[in-house]
Specification:
0% strand, 195 residues, mainly alpha, elongated, single chain, 2 domains
């Protein structure tokens, strides 16, 4: 019996008619869903002033958090960051110019020669000098092991110093704005390869 009542509300086209309240609810609900859908509707564009203000606010919040975590006042933290950021160009220069010099080269007869290409090194003399100090093929060579260890410590200290320098900025974009050299492919290759 109930089933017949449900279908008796159909009109001549074969569709059921809805009560007016359900129809109003459906329209209101669709409108609310569409209001929250950004893809369909108009996007709110942020003006240049708002972007600048938001970036300044983000930087200020970052600065306050850094000061709070380090136990400094806002002015002390700002002075600390400014003084440490003055050292970054020298660090970038050290990274770009780093080349390991082995003070105690191996005297073994079985030398290891590098077979490959150097994107950073174009000078033939530098390649020949590298081949002379490349090391040997002996597994238990003490001098080569010490040289490799010293080179790894040097690279580690440079990468650690660079990570500390990155931490002086709220974002990598902010660091690149102050030091455009770190955005170059040559610098990126040096850091990714491990200097």
């Amino acid at each position: 019996m109930r089933w017949r009542r449900r279908w008796k509300s159909e009109d001549r086209t074969g569709t059921r008619s809805c009560p007016r309240t359900a129809f109003n609810f459906h329209n209101t609900f669709c409108m609310l869903i569409n209001m929250g859908n950004i893809d369909r509707g108009c996007k709110r564009t942020i003006s240049r002033e708002e972007k600048v203000w938001q970036n300044e606010l983000k930087d200020l919040i970052w600065l306050e958090l850094q000061a709070r975590c380090s136990g400094r006042t806002l002015a002390q933290q700002d002075m600390y960051l400014c003084s440490e950021r003055k050292l970054v160009p020298a660090l970038i220069n050290n990274i770009m110019e780093y080349q390991f010099v082995n003070t105690n080269p191996c005297q073994s007869e079985s030398k290891l020669h590098f077979m490959g290409h150097h994107d950073d090194l174009i000078d033939e003399d530098k390649c020949a000098a590298e081949d002379q100090n490349a090391g040997c093929l002996e597994f238990d060579c003490q001098q080569c092991s010490e040289a490799i260890g010293a080179a790894m410590r040097d690279v580690y200290s440079l990468l650690e110093a660079f990570n500390n320098a990155v931490a002086l900025y709220p974002s990598s974009k902010a660091m690149m704005a102050d030091h455009p050299q770190i955005a170059t492919k040559a610098f990126d290759n040096r850091v990714k390869v491990g200097i």
